[in-house]
Amino acid sequence: MPVSKTLVQLLRDDAGLTGTKEGCGEGDCGACTVLLGGVPVNSCLVLASEADGKEILTVEGLSREWGLHPLQQAFVEEGAVQCGYCIPGMLLSAKALLDENPAPTEAEIRGAIAGNLCRCTGYVRIVQAIQSAVTKMARPR
Fold it and tell me: Do 55 and 36 form a contact (C-beta atoms < 8 A)?
């Protein structure tokens, strides 16, 4: 593997995990966000070798055999998905937030997704979807 190969290149080109998008390639848009050891990172800025031996979660890992993750379901139900390019990064940033804080305020939600740019939605429905997921995830199963 070339020393300069980024994590996003490894995920997309070598592992076939194309849910992770490469947007700006400079860490400004958040389209390539994945969770590395539970922490959201811009995978375009992380060398693949830096991720060796660490747990990596991409959007493909959110859903399970029983269905969509509550965040994914809420994004669909709330109409938070338009072109879809930013959504994988948004979902993973939101998951990292909810893993740390299962009852975030709107300001905390907005802060958690601040590094993820969306040109379609204006963020209102995305924030609503995350709030909806919080409510659903808080209910006893």
Answer: yes
pLDDT in tens, 57-67: 999 999 987 89
Q: Mind listing the pLDDT tens digit for each residue in 17-76? A: 999 999 999 999 999 999 999 999 999 999 999 999 999 999 999 998 789 999 999 999
DSSP the chain: --TT-BHHHIIIIIS--TTS---SSSSSS-TTEEEETTEEEETTTSBGGGGTTS-EE-GGGT-BTTB--HHHHHHHHTT--SS-SSHHHHHHHHHHHHHH-SS--HHHHHHHTTTS--SSS-SHHHHHHHHHHHHHHHS--
